[in-house]
């Protein structure tokens, strides 16, 4: 099913409209968490274990307490009675999943370098830092588990009471016999193993927390640099045992999240507890280096993927097996991250038989959780790299192997072998367009020439196509996956007496431009200026209902709620307008901000007149309440399935192993676009983040579990100098699952680009016999791969 | 200025239980500000906590990200890498001092026009670095902008629109 008509008539949606968020951010007017002025606030600093695994035999706080400005120091034991529950994991993916108790301050044992073992409360930022140095902890270091293989072996069991390091195993094998038979009958059987290194999300704003208590009436306001003020409110109330109606959570301006601010963190609950205890505001701001041990990391899994195909390379089965690193504890949605990819290891290919199994283990490393794409970059990487291996086995081009296997357009909506229904898709045009943008044929010819001439500067072209499931998520589907919450979103649209508009959203933006886009959606329908629409968000007192921002859900779920609330308020306004015009509501249409009677355009009343009439309420039709306001909570019937094709061109110097990214082209399809400028911006940033996994970034841990790339000098977030201009285009295949036909674009770039670059790197080095390449493909990794393949100049 | 011995640039005022504090007198966004500070106070913290100019952000502790970039005597400097006492007598411009009475500075305008910001956290530092870069080099091309902004990290934009904005503003 395809929706051919655009549902937008107002001329606003679809414009590359500049963002209304910008002026505050460009001038320093915007307030991030550390910018908040909180007179009299106490500063918190956390004493973190320097050991990955150690028994705590004693803590001496006397020197710290003697530091000027230090008010108090608490250990895990001191605070043991404070918590109503351990820090939450909201996604117990199996009934027998093992989940160790995780408290804001460790008691008895530290399980990773970064685990909080004590906390200093002081009158200033500097005094709190001084206090840290005075806390003396008597550690007894234990053997650390740093690899998933070591974890799986249970050589050292980290959480003794669980008896094992394995948290859960989760299989998805709809037809096991079918899979086995397909592999038996296969002409080609490709087996590949990949490692997704640990990544540090590194939003430019570190995290921070501030809590303002009102000791006499019991109110408490929690400010946090979070993506999820609404989810946090529920979880914080439960974890600390404070009444939810007394708790208000505010996410001020948030400087990026990328999944790492989609969590309930120790410091949030800790600051609440300390504010309660001291009766004054309490605040904490993360330092960058501290973040390696205080904020979740991403990816960290080992994958095996097997493809079965016939002689022509037509896929008959896909089997994927994962070993995923949860880190020391289960953070909010960590166990579910592999599941978000579990359904997509066959990519956008039409495959009859499918098998997926994931085992997740604990290590003595920083906990992992959702990082931009969460599960889907991993899945895309596996299938897209393996498709290149299959192309080589079959002896066809990497473009051709994909074209042969794309789900045919006429099969949509497509019943996937993993049990999903893909909403809409048309994959070949996206690949064709990406090839055109990169100049595929010319580049292939250039590569052949260089190879024939024996050049040691190798060109490589890598494709990654992708389909993702986003728009998290139908609540019933989440229930079937054991997720502890729903996937709906809430919106309110209010037409004020002066015909200015207030919109309240439960999505919680941190760079995505919701204020601009939501204004456009509402303005397009109401016929008002988008600047007359104000979008309120990220404060649970103003926007009490919400499920927040992650999983490319904001537009397809939150935006749809905005659309529907707008329709609902228009319906009410039409009733009043009809009364004013002595007409039937069904005969009215709203265009350009004016209600008129279809067929007799002279009978009209402007929306502004209706808004004022709704406010004065002097003459409303019977049974109609005053004012114009509508609230909607939208629970999507299905995920949405954006797709696209990305192609990277790299040049590799055989002697140094240096990879130079020469060109990058992509054609993406996120359905109807609200603001193409913002779509492109999301792609730019997303693509670079994925390229960074391929070429530069890695949280490097040594055998003792120490992070050797904890700060931004050692962890290689790319600068402008490493990046290039990307060539982007799009196709439009609207989603039939929501009225706007939108899909989502926040994660697409990251999902596609890692595999495109790595395929290009391997393609470049194929004449040297290279078939495997570790990420990041640093000069050292490249040289190692060339040497392992026994080829190349030295 | 970096490397200048502390006692030559600030004036010892008095002892406190925390040690001595020094008087720093600095012109910030055109206004002379005279404040007593602990000598160890970073310029970034001085601007943010003492003067309330929170537009200057802090994104790292290794002088890597550039979120804290301000202009000291017209040239970009990472304010997390300087002590407040080092700017005694200097002229400092922060992001708050960039927009004039007639609206945004051309560099801010270009960032807006080119969608060169998303979360906006890197933006004040990026804009200040870009202002200094454009001021210093008259014939910038894209590569020059990319090299020139190497010390400023942005996690959101992939830099494509930032480069576009800086080039637009340099014309
Ligand atoms: S905060 Fe100054 S360079 Fe990062
Ligand atoms: S806009 Fe978010 S870090 Fe640059």
Core attributes:
heterodimer; A: 794 residues; alpha+beta; Aldehyde Oxidoreductase, domain 3; Aldehyde Oxidoreductase, domain 4; seven-stranded mixed beta sheet; five-stranded mixed beta sheet; 21 helices; globular; B: 171 residues; Ubiquitin-like (UB roll); DNA polymerase, domain 1; 2 domains; six-stranded mixed beta sheet; 6 strands; 20% strand; disordered N terminus; binds FE2/S2 (inorganic) cluster
Could you characterize the architecture of this molecule?
The complex is a heterodimer of chains A (794) and B (171). Chain A has 794 residues and is of the alpha+beta class. Chain A has three domains: 33-142 and 206-254 and 261-294, Alpha-Beta Complex (Aldehyde Oxidoreductase, domain 3); 298-472 and 638-788, 2-Layer Sandwich (Aldehyde Oxidoreductase, domain 4), CATH 3.30.365; 488-579 and 595-634, 2-Layer Sandwich (Aldehyde Oxidoreductase, domain 4), CATH 3.30.365.10. Chain A has 21 helices and 28 strands. In chain A, the strands form seven sheets. Chain A has a seven-stranded mixed β-sheet with strand order 3-5-1-12-9-10-11, with helices on both faces. A five-stranded mixed β-sheet of chain A has the order 7-15-14-13-8. In chain A, helix 11 crosses helix 12, helix 16 packs parallel to helix 17 and helix 17 packs across helix 18. By secondary structure, chain B is α+β, with helices and mostly antiparallel strands. In chain B, strands 1, 2, 3, 4, 5 and 6 form a six-stranded mixed β-sheet that branches. Mean pLDDT of chain B is 92; it is low at 1-6. Bound molecules: FE2/S2 (inorganic) cluster (2 copies). One FE2/S2 (inorganic) cluster (FES) binds at residues 58-60, 63-68, 78, 80 of chain B.
